[in-house]
Amino acid sequence: MRSMISLAACLSLWTAAYAGDADSTNPVPDNAKPDATVTLSGGSVAAGIGYTWGQGEVKTSSQSQKFSIKGISVVDVGASGFDAHGNVYNLKTLADFSGTYTAASAGAAIGNGATAVYLRNEHGVVIKLIAKTTGLKFNLSADGVRIALKS
């Protein structure tokens, strides 16, 4: 069995960490058409300072590209795993998908242990991510995660 820390748990923590700065509304209209879809999974280990990792795939109507996820957080304790999927908005070029993502709005529990959250990078790309976690994680601070396209 793989031991993994949850990106979804990090997402929940980002929403707590960034809730004061986040817009009270969704960063994209409810009826917005996505430019791409995304699936991902991964994990992390934490005992004081945590390291999150993962991999995924972003798919547009014309192409598909694999990517990696990396992130460091502080005051972490715990372990869990995640699987997530979602829609990508404001994606003008696939290269804009790479970047550092932080919470763009407060997350919401959607049942069955799943959490939905909007993430935004420095290029304005927004991911509406629905993630399901296994395990437990506690975090007092997170700086987001870095997504990089694989060649």
List keywords for this structure.
mainly beta; 5-stranded antiparallel barrel; 58% strand; globular
Strand order of the largest sheet: 2-6-5-3-7
N- and C-termini, Cα separation: 29 Å
Runs in which pLDDT lies below 50 for 5 or more consecutive residues are 1-24
Shape: globular
Order of helices and strands: HEEEEEEE
Briefly note the structural class of the backbone: mainly beta
Number of domains: 1
Secondary structure tally: strands: 7
Please give the largest β-sheet.
5 strands, antiparallel, barrel
Task: Write down the overall mean pLDDT.
Answer: 74
The gyration radius over C-alpha positions equals 14 Å
Describe the structure.
This protein is mostly beta strands and 151 residues long. It has one helix and seven strands; from the N terminus they run αβββββββ. The chain has one domain. Helices cover 8% and strands 58% of the residues. The longest helix is centred in the first third of the chain and has 12 residues, at 7-18. The protein is globular and about 40 Å long.
